[in-house]
Amino acid sequence: MARSSRQPFGGSIGKTFVDSTPSWPDLDVAAPGSPNVVVVLLDDVGFAQFGCYGSDIRTPTFDALAATGLRYSNFHTTALCSPTRAALLTGRNHHTVGMGRVAEIASGFPGYNAEMSHEDGMISEILVRNGYSTFAVGKWHLTPSHEAQMGAPRWRWPLGRGFERYYGFLGGETDQYHPDLVYDNHEVDPPKTPDEGYHFTQDMADKAITFMNDARAAHQTKPFFLWFAPGACHAPHQAPKSFIDAYHDQFNQGWDTWREEVFARQMAAGLMPAGTTLSERPHWVPAWDSLSNDERRLYSRMMEVYAGFLTHTDAQVGRLVEHVKSLGEFDNTIFVVMSDNGASAEGGPKGSYNEAFFFNFVPESLEENLKRIDLLGTPEAHNHYPWGWAWAGNTPFKRWKRETHEGGVTDPLIVHWPQGIKQGGGVRHQYTHAVDLMPTLLDLLQIAPPDEIAGVHQSPIEGVSFAHTFNKPDAATKHLTQYFEMMGSRALYHDGWKAVVFHPMMGVAYDGSDASLPFDRDEWELYNIDNDRAEIHNLAAAQPEKLQEMIALWWREAEAHRVLPLNNQPGKFGDRRHRRERYEYRPGIGSLPRAVAPNLHNRGFRIIAEVNSPGEVSGAICAHGSASAGYAVYVRDNRLHYVHNFLGLQRFVAAATVPIPRGAHRLVVKFTMTARFKGNVELFYDDLPVGAAEIPMTVPFFYGTAGFTVGYLRGHSVIHEEHVPFTFTDGALHRVIIEPESRTWRDPVLDPKNVDRAALGTQ
């Protein structure tokens, strides 16, 4: 057990070394024979998208682990990213630990504040105190947005939650070719460029292997816990061309036929109980046969890109498997492979070349997307497939990510451990949930949950172990009751029954539902889920007493787990703690996330750069966004410039007509709104006007996930002609002041349902 205080000295101390006896403290070691643990958590991968779950997408690594391990057919998540990750790591329900939604849209209520307490200890914090090396690689998404910056506290970063090493990104989404990287506790740039063959998932595998090797260099037998969480297969769907092209024409049959073929394979493999019926296509998903030839060609290619992305990810996990084998430790390593929620419908009905279109309410153009079809999956695109493929990816279930029908909350789960699973290749149908992973692993490792961690009393663990199912296929489930809530949609599982209700979010009622309907007027559905996994036979009318019993139990669970108050608005409920009337920055600060960066959408502003020119200067003054969307203030050819990148389609530039004089000056960019989402920009050296331009279209709500920087660029450059880091002339930039107008153009266009739609799509 790790020590939190100084051990008593066990030797003796005389006047000199000769008459003294030394004593060495015991090293922290795990119990002999303790297995390594590798958790692979994929993102936005649906129940039906692994090969071993019925798909024709090639996932040989996952399939091989399943073939000699176990597949769970009844594993459930919370329907969204941050909440599921919180549940997996803590063994508590997502509202219990304050992560009722994604970290970016926290609110001022205990179940939704995203401020996870050390009272809810993570498994990493337990294992590191029980002789394990611990490292996390990839997506984190458990830090409140205002703390995901270099100047913030680190105790809700991975190294503050029991991980000894970290390499990845803190937010919900990143570009696979230009990731927003953090190494341990500091920002870093990718080690290579896309032209040099860089891809983030490969980089992740490289670092995970390095961490394993570092651990073995320090201790030959100390077990390790690796949390490996790729950005895949969250948008943007990006993968090396060879992986994408390997799927040429494979999905031309379309999502309707593909889904039927997948379901047939699922039934043949015993993944679904006999008698399971495939759910019908909903009216808001178009029949494949109703699409034009151009639509089919585009949507097929988008699915090819997704499939290539997943196969590429499988290959990187394969590298981890092979490395563990090379260490001679494969038989005593527990591999867990899963996804965080159902497949994502955030590509909308038509998919997207640049998902910033969707989040800014700008219609997609089939013609424009077809022009860029060969760029899908490359560094130039930020693409997402249409929601017909998401629906198919959750076969045989209804709906998708963010919703509490089975399509949103049921995910693949593979467990592989040769020394602990006597007979591999089986399917387990016991009901399991994300909160069960932590107690299961502790059970397998024979580690009792501690009452205290680092002096902090621990809250009760709410999950239950499913380790007893490893070698007893027919063992009864221990998880008898589970509530669900996400953005107003709710469900309750209890002893084989499920009550569920879909409640649309404000601003995204895509199926014709009334998002303003009071919660007490929702129409709940009732299913005998043991016999009706796909939620086909609604028994609400036939068994009203049972339904009311389930609804009453949901309310009791909701009160017990901090689910209330219910709200289907995706906003932050007026949190203004991190907004200012005036921002002042020094050059070289770490990039700032959207939550704390200056909000210049749909409002006038002034950006003032104080410079002292030695005669000629150049570089970025400040920038927010990337090649997908954003703005930048910069100096090129010793002249001040402002660029507004409208969704990668057009870049509107204002350039000074004269050079910057030698000496100290204030370079000013003034933007004046002339109508909603348009305006004029003026450039000044001190009070002297030096340039102007009209900006006929501004990005309404969302520049993307790339952060705000001062004095340099980061990621995929928002300035088309300049490459990162485009650092400003050394010592010449003193400070940057940003003064946004307090009100937006003629009012409430920036209400929560519009602004925070973007946050929902990047988790």
Structural overview:
With 763 residues, the chain is α+β, with helices and mostly antiparallel strands. The protein has three domains: 37-425, Alkaline Phosphatase, subunit A (3-Layer(aba) Sandwich), CATH 3.40.720; 482-560, Arylsulfatase, C-terminal domain; 583-750, Jelly Rolls, CATH 2.60.120.200. The strands form five sheets. Strands 1, 2, 3, 4, 5, 6, 7, 8, 9, 10 and 11 form an eleven-stranded mixed sheet that branches. A six-stranded antiparallel sheet has the order 18-28-19-24-25-26, with no helix packed on it. A five-stranded antiparallel sheet has the order 23-22-21-20-27, with no helix packed on it. Helix 4 packs parallel to helix 7 and helix 6 (254-268) runs parallel beside helix 10. It is globular.
Mean pLDDT over all positions: 94
How many structural domains?
3
- By CATH, the topology of the largest domain is Alkaline Phosphatase, subunit A
CATH level 1 class label of the largest domain: Alpha Beta
Q: What sort of overall outline do the alpha carbons produce when their principal axes are compared?
A: globular
Biggest sheet details? 11 strands, mixed
CA-atom Rg in angstroms: 27 Å
Indicate the CATH architecture of the largest domain.
Answer: 3-Layer(aba) Sandwich
- In CATH, what is the homologous superfamily of the largest domain? Alkaline Phosphatase, subunit A
What's the gist of this structure?
The chain is α+β, with helices and mostly antiparallel strands and about 775 residues long. Helices cover about 20% and strands about 20% of the residues.
